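Technical annex B. To support the medicinal chemistry partners, we prepared a structural model of the target in complex with nickel (II) ion, based solely on the information shown next.
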Amino acid sequence: MRLQHATWQEVEAYLQHATGIILPIGSTEQHGPNGLVGTDAICPEAIAWELGEREGVLVGPTLSLGMAQHHLAFPGSISLRPSTLIALVRDTVVSLGRHGFTHVFFLNGHGGNIATLSAAYAEVYAEQSMGYASPLASLNLTTHNWFAGPRVRELAQALYGNAEGSHATASEVSLSWYACPQAVKQVAMSPTVAPVGSAQCHAEAFRRRFPDGRMGSNPALASVEHGRRFLEAGVDDAWEAYQAFIGQA
Ligand code: NI
C-alpha cells in the first residue's frame, strides 16, 4: 500500500495491525552517459512499490534528494547539505512517530546518503535517550541499501564481474530502465570501463577524476531484462531485511 494513495482512515486502520513503514530514499544526480539523473530514487522506489504490493507493507513518499555534493559539477545534479538531510529525515520520522509508527525502514539507493542517514538516526536516538521528545519514544530506524543486498550482489557479480563498478553501475542502470523503459539510452562508452578512485572530494575534483561521471563501471552492459531480475532480487533482499528489522526488540 502506498501512503500517497491511501486515505487517513486507511492509514489509521493499517496502524491497528502494523507499525512499520518503508521510505524509499535516493538522490538526484548524474549517472554517466546512459544513466538517468533520477536513478538513485527510481531504483529503491521500484523495489519498495513492488514489495509494498506483494507483502502489504505501507510505503511512504520517496525522498528524492540526497547528499550528492560531489556530483554538482555535472548539470542536473541537486544536493542537500548533510545538515539539511539530517533535518529532513528527523522531521519525517518524528511526524510518523507521532501517529504510532515504530519502525522506519529507509530503502536507500545512494551510497552518499549512508553516513548522513546514520548521523540523523543518532540525532533522533539522542533525543529519545535524553527523554524530552515523547513522540520519538519507540522509534527504530534503519537503512537498507538495495544495491548491497546479497541476492543483488550475487546477480551483479554474475552478469558484470568487475565492470559493475561503484557509480553509474550496470545494475542500477538496468533497474532504472526496467522501471522507466521509455528512457532507455544506448551510448558508446569510452573507456569501456571507467576509472576507479575515491568520491570523498569536492565536485570539481570528482569531475577531473571521473570525466563522464562513471566510477569503475561499464553501464553499456545494462538491459531492461537485467533490470527485471534486479527488481526480483532487490525485493527479496529488502523483504528479508525488513522482517529482521521489524522483529528486533
Ligand atoms: Ni546511483
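Notes passed to the chemistry partners:
Residues 26 and 41 are 4 Å apart (CA to CA).
Strands lie at 20-25, 58-59, 103-108, 140-145.
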